């Protein structure tokens, strides 16, 4: 079984904001794979189904970004998953808008959702897909920027990144993450 987690914040006011890039990928995968997000457990909403010959969990933590690990760890324990069975998808200020980067380990890089995930998993070694949202314009505070909606100029690059991230997740259901990294980075 594989678990794909998209990080974000619940609630109408956060829909389609930069910080919810991970949620947007889970929505895309839910549509593509025909796996509805119809279950709720451990402060998260998720769906379970089969794709690529693999049983798959698609997860959106509802803990708010900064506490994402509080949903991820209990779900992994409940379904007896190992760290290598997980991929976490999230926004990244250090990548240009629309660029994606896959990694198998690393620090949180200042991302509070990843800090929480590392804390609750007890390791920095887990698969991740980072979606570039770029840096805020001069004078704009980071929280205001990440909780803001994409500009018209960002719409297409972000949609492309969401599609590419979903493609990478589908590839991971059929081959090792290192191969997927080589293909998509």
- Count structural domains: 1
Distance between the termini: 24 Å
CATH class identity: Alpha Beta
Number of helices: 6
So, CATH architecture? 3-Layer(aba) Sandwich
- Described by the principal axes of the CA atoms, the overall outline is globular
What composes the largest sheet?
A: 7 strands, mixed
User: What percentage of the residues does DSSP assign to strands (E)?
Assistant: 15-25%
The number of distinct β-strands equals: 7
Q: What does the average pLDDT come to?
A: 96
What kind of assembly state do the chains in view correspond to?
single chain
The value of Rg in angstroms is 15 Å
Give the helix proportion (percent range). Answer: 25-40%
Alpha-beta classification: alpha/beta
CATH homologous group name:
Peptidyl-tRNA hydrolase
Instruction: Write the element-wise H/E pattern from the N-terminal end onward.
Output: EHEEEHEEHEHHH
CATH third-tier fold name: Rossmann fold
Q: Output the strand order for the largest sheet.
A: 2-3-4-1-5-7-6
Detail the poorly predicted runs: none
Task: Give a structural overview.
- With 185 residues, the chain is of the alpha/beta class.
- The chain has a single domain (2-184), classed as Rossmann fold (3-Layer(aba) Sandwich).
- It is 36% helix and 22% strand.
- It has a seven-stranded mixed sheet with strand order 2-3-4-1-5-7-6, with helices on both faces.
- A hairpin with a 2-residue loop joins strand 2 and strand 3.
- It is globular and about 45 Å long.
- It starts with a strand and ends with a helix.
- The model has no long low-confidence stretch (mean pLDDT 96).
């Amino acid at each position: 079984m594989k678990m794909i987690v998209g990080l974000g914040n619940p609630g109408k006011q956060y829909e389609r904001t930069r910080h919810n890039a991970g949620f947007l990928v889970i929505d895309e995968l839910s549509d593509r794979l025909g796996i509805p997000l119809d279950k709720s457990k451990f402060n998260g909403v998720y769906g379970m189904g089969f794709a690529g010959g693999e049983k798959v969990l698609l997860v959106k933590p509802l803990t708010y970004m900064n506490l994402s690990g509080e949903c991820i760890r209990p779900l992994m324990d409940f379904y007896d998953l190992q760290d290598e069975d997980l991929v976490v998808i999230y926004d990244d200020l250090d990548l240009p808008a629309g660029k994606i980067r896959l990694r198998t380990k690393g620090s949180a890089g200042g991302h509070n959702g990843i800090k929480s995930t590392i804390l609750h998993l007890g390791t920095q070694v887990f698969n991740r897909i980072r979606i570039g949202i770029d840096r805020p314009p001069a004078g704009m505070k980071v929280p205001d920027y990440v909780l803001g909606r994409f500009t018209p100029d960002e719409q297409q690059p972000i949609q492309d990144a969401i599609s590419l991230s979903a493609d990478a997740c589908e590839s991971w259901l059929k081959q090792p993450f290192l191969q997927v990294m080589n293909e998509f980075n």
